[in-house]
Amino acid sequence: MTEQQLIAFFQDLHRHPELGYEETRTTQKVRQALEQAGIDLLPSGLRTGLIAVIRGKKPGKTIGLRADMDALPVQEETGLPYASEEKGKMHACGHDFHTTCMLGAALLLKERENELAGTVKIVFQPGEELSDGGGGKFLAASPALADVQEYYAGHTYPGFPAGTLGIKEGPVMAAPDTFTVRILGKGAHAGNPHLGIDPIPAAATLTLSLQTLITRNKDAFEPAVLSVTHLQAGTTWNVVPEEALLEGTLRTLREDLRLRLRQQLEAMAHSIAQAHGCQALVSFTVGPPPVINDAALCAAARETALRLGFRVDRQDNTMGGEDFSEYLAYAPGAFIRIGTGGGFPNHHPRFTADPAALPGAARFFAELALERAGSK
Ligand SMILES: [Zn+2]
Ligand SMILES: [Zn+2]
User: Fold this and answer.
1) Engineering a disulfide at 197: which of 53, 185, 217, 329 sits with its beta carbon 3.0 to 4.6 angstroms away?
2) Alpha-carbon gap, residue 1 to 362, rounded angstroms
3) pLDDT for 123
4) Domain containing 182: what range?
5) Cα(89) to centroid of ligand 1, in Å?
6) Which ligand is nearest to the CA of 353?
7) What is the pLDDT of residues 329-351, one digit of tens each?
8) Mean pLDDT rounded to a whole number for the chain
9) What separation in angstroms does the CA of 48 have from each of 146, 213, 237?
10) Cα(205)–Cα(135) distance, rounded to whole angstroms?
11) What is the number of structural domains in the chain?
């Protein structure tokens, strides 16, 4: 595939975004391109998504490259000539870029398979944007990937222009958990609140008090975010409702803090509900772990990037989540930010990823995999 063809492939995926676990067209397009190049596929166990493998002629390590494939339920407002043709769906996180980038890397590696010592497995993962343990958790445990010794993934980043990569060791993305608290009271006429148990004061108190978990209960140098994002009670002005609902997200970079804040949130919900004569039902959806980059692998990636002429910047931590961390439970790896310019953040209806960054990014991941597979 020429650079122009690679860019055209990306623009085609951008026109036809598919949500998590619905990536059938994307899977078919990638499969077609891989098969045309004579690249073997391994069983993934999923209806969408693929695992490709390139085996070198000499022995070496097994390296995993991972791309995600799914889009978001966002109505695109970029005005690009290749904007989404699917109403209410958009590649607003650049997963079309990631898929094309790793396809490009696979094609380059296939061309250079005589040089390759070791094996490279390229994972095209469905369902990254889903809150409840998407494709990453499933694929990371796949027997087809059991021998992978190092994982690498890239992510579009509007903060850098094309030609810049963000590489940093340590934690880079948060563990995004979600919580739901139902506060159960007792309905009544709003003129006689003493005959019921009003869940609204309890919900209001809890919403404000939860912030003290962040400001009063942990070290100020330990990042954590708690956002109540959905607060609901009642249906009209003259009825004390039966219950109130709080939903939100709790995000941390360390497992011990994650667990402690989760326990404190639960304890606070129960005690505040009880203080108001209500009952609290608390549930959590545990998201993927935080993404923690391996220092030695980041150093290797930095070296490759500089040698290929990239500008290498550090990357800021973000409290966003990424299920690339599921793979890191099995082998060390590095999550690298790819400068794709634009100026609008990921998930924004006007998010864009500069196609000019694509050929370079594909070359970088091919080169990195080639070097790491042959490294001692
Ligand atoms: Zn995203
Ligand atoms: Zn993403």
Assistant:
1) 185
2) 12
3) 98
4) 174-285
5) 13
6) 2
7) 999 999 999 999 998 999 999 99
8) 96
9) 20, 40, 48
10) 37
11) 2
